[in-house]
Amino acid sequence: MAEKTFVVEKTCPICQEMTRVVKTRSRLPVLKRDEDGCVHYDDFNPYFYTVWACEHCGFAADEKTFTTKIPDRHLKILRGDLLSNKFGIDFVEERTAEDAIFIFKLAISYLEEVEDKFSKQAKYTHQLAWVYREAGDEVNEKKFLAKAAQLYDTALAKENFPVDGLTDSAAIYIIGAIYWRLGEYEKCAAYLSRLMKDDGLRSRDPRLADRVRDLWGDVRGALRDAKK
Question: Is the Cα torsion angle 168, 70, 37, 203 positive or negative in sign?
């Protein structure tokens, strides 16, 4: 693990105390990438460490949230909750899937509490599904994939894209890819067709256009097979 992760200390944005967190190395050998963006690595899962957790107050969030200014409204809500109920979280340098699932759910609960962006809730929920995928828990993987798709869809309707580097086209593709993973091919095709009709997609994002084309071919084949 030492060659893939390292421990640093960061100031918790909620309680202002120094807490230990685990960061992953930037260069990790990739084995494969799933249609919905989940990357598989050799004998290691960096998604276990995506969410940091404060040892002192129990706040949990990704690195960007930890290290940039949190909106005052969110701070007021979270500090009112966490500073009065400091429960802390034991620091674990090497997380299990169970550890990661607990921390992800904690972070998602804070996003819901402050009514944070649907796109951010979708991202956390989607990555939680990836942790379940790694653990081989298909029931919970599908449960959180379905929830992530709904959140991405709500984000498309209510937020101005791009959001944190995510374009609306990428979000549409992700929803389609999630429905592909869920075996809901009609829904997958409905989202991908929106991108297939987008004449400017290839010039804007050729890599995404290639992924759309490849998945479109797969889902059309699956739909044909289903009709036989």
Answer: positive
Q: What is the pLDDT of residue 226?
A: 83
Taking residue 152's Cβ as centre, other Cβ atoms within 10 Å add up to 25
Rounded CA separation 134/188 (Å) = 23
DSSP 17-64: -EEEEEEE-S---EEEE-TTS-EEETTB-GGGGSEEE-TTT--EEEHH
Under 8 Å between Cβ of 168 and 159: no
Stronger pLDDT, 228 or 155, i.e. the higher one: 155
How do residues 165-194 score in pLDDT, each as one tens digit?
999 999 999 999 999 999 999 999 999 999
In a domain, 93, yes or no: yes
- Rounded to a whole number of angstroms, the CA Rg of the chain reads 19
Domain count, the chain: 1
